[in-house]
Structure formats: C-alpha cells, structure tokens
C-alpha cells in the first residue's frame, strides 16, 4: 500500500502539463482566428471602398488628361509661331547660300579666262519671238564696249550689242541675230553655231549629210574672231535630222548655259601682253 501511494502524484503533474499546453494552444488559435477574421473583413470591404472611390479617381484622371492635352496644344502653338518667325530667315539663308555658290563658280570661271574679267548683275531681260536680250549693270563708264564677250560659269552667254553710261544690253546666243565660230570637241572640225530665236536650242547651219557629227558631241568656241578664247563651252548636239529637199542636215545644239536663270555674268576683255589668266578678275561696280 505504501508503494502505491508514492506513485499517485505523477498523474496530477501530467494533467497539469496537459491543461497548460491546451491553454497555450487555444490562445494560439484564437490569435490566428483574429488575423483570419481581419483578413476576411478587409477582403469584403475592399471592393466596396474601391467602388466608392472610383468616380473621384476617374475625375482626377480626366483632369490630368485635359491638362496634358492643353499643355500639348499650347506647346504645339508655340512651336508653330516660332517656325513662322524662322521661315523668312531660312529662306534668306538658302538664297545667300545659292548666291555664294554662284559667285564662287563665277570666280572659278574668271580664273580660267586669259584676260581681265568683271562681274555684272543681270537687271533686266527681254524675250520675244526672235530677240533674246539681257540688261546688265555695267556700262561705258566701266569700259564696256559693243561686241564684248559675255560668259557664265558654265559657258558662253552672248555679246554686248548696246551700251549706256551705267548699263548695257547683251544679245544671248539664242538670239536670232547671233552667230559664233565653234569647234567640235571630238573631231576638232570648225563649224558655225547660230541663234534662231528658239530659247532652248541653237543650230549648226550648212552641215552636209556626210559630216562626221554625232548626237552627244560637245561644241566649244574655236577662238576665231577674237571675241571669245578657244575652248569655252557652247553646247551639246541633241539631234541630227536629214533635211528633206536639201543637201544639209538640221542640227540642234542645247546651250550649256541656262539663259533664263542668269543672275550674274562675266564680261571679258582680251588679254594684255604679259597678263596672266584671271589675274584681273573684278567684282561688280559699287
């Protein structure tokens, strides 16, 4: 009996430990239950809260969009106004660049001439059925004389036919009264090039059918007559047609110089003894 009574406290201690563990377990699950309840409550309330705030958010987004569109429109208008202000300057800059290029080309042409040259500006033009004239701003006070040769950067333009104190008239190669001794570059054959009133083509008269001339042949000044030095470009043969009832061919030559686009030209003087090519090239009168 005494042995049995010594073993009885053990179940009491076990029960105490069991109930203590149970209490801790219940406390733990209670905390988890509270977290679960709070999470479930948030999940239920969030859609309602979002739906309540949606109109306000849409209004704010719309205001932001309107402000952005207004800003873009205002910026676009400012850029358009700035472009309108810059356009005239861009046009002027482009014109200056083109003028500079033309003047540089004329200067290069002047350097290749054997005698003195002087630049003149085209201040007028007259074109009718047969007469093709330019007026330039140099005259007798500048030493210009009747019969003087006039060239452009790309070739021969024509001759001075009338002069005044401050200006002169130049008959273009295409004028019906103009005729110029020339030479075919490929064959070195001398020919005559005439103006015929056609603003686009020159002609070579009295060319026999059997003459050695081809489409594409380049025509240069021959140097005969003393008006122009030898080797200046005149034009290029663009067509050769056998004339009906005649012993000669009809030859068309397109001038190298675009006569309707001239703004500046060079007046040429015969070289003086001992002068170098292009050594006395001058600008226009001031």
Automatic annotation (TrEMBL):
Gene3D superfamilies in UniProt: Rod shape-determining protein MreC, domain 1 (2.40.10.340), Rod shape-determining protein MreC, domain 2 (2.40.10.350)
Keywords: Cell shape, Membrane, Transmembrane, Transmembrane helix
Stored InterPro entries: Cell/Rod_1, Cell/Rod_MreC_2, MreC, MreC_beta-barrel_core
Record flagged with keyword tRNA processing: no
Domain of life: Bacteria
Entry-linked Pfam families: MreC
Annotated transmembrane regions: 12-29
Domain Rod shape-determining protein MreC beta-barrel core: from-to ranges: 122-268
Stated family: Belongs to the MreC family.
Function summary: Involved in formation and maintenance of cell shape.
The protein's name in its UniProt record: Cell shape-determining protein MreC
Organism: Thermithiobacillus plumbiphilus
Phylogenetic lineage: Bacteria, Pseudomonadati, Pseudomonadota, Acidithiobacillia, Acidithiobacillales
